[in-house]
Give the backbone structure.
Amino acid sequence: MTKKYDDAKWHYGGDFPAELPMEASATHIGMFFAWAVLVGLVVDEDWFDLAAIRERFVSRSSLPGATFLHEFDGKLVDDIFSPEGAEFTTAYYENGNGYFVDYEKTLGDKLPSLYHVEDGWRTFDRLKSVLNKRFAEWKRGALVLD
């Protein structure tokens, strides 16, 4: 059975800012996904072209959140990950004190909400070192989440 870690649709409504396009609900998911693609934690499936997505991320010709929303309908599920990728995502992304806390600490400063984070490569570059650090900690068995 497929496990769903996140879905952009979960973020519509509620405290989602009315002035933002609905695409802003996928930025945080797309940033994690782009990182996972670039470090080799995503596996190719029949229903998407991983090589093409990776090339667009390497060349930075498409944005992480927009690409994720378009290619995956905003749904982050376990079957797109390698076994290692799924284990890390469960430990870090799914943990309420993991990815979302790091995302907020790294990108949420001086913004009205986390949905205001820009879907862009400068934003990604700020976040990727944190993700690399957390992944290395997890691999060493030293992932400690506040």
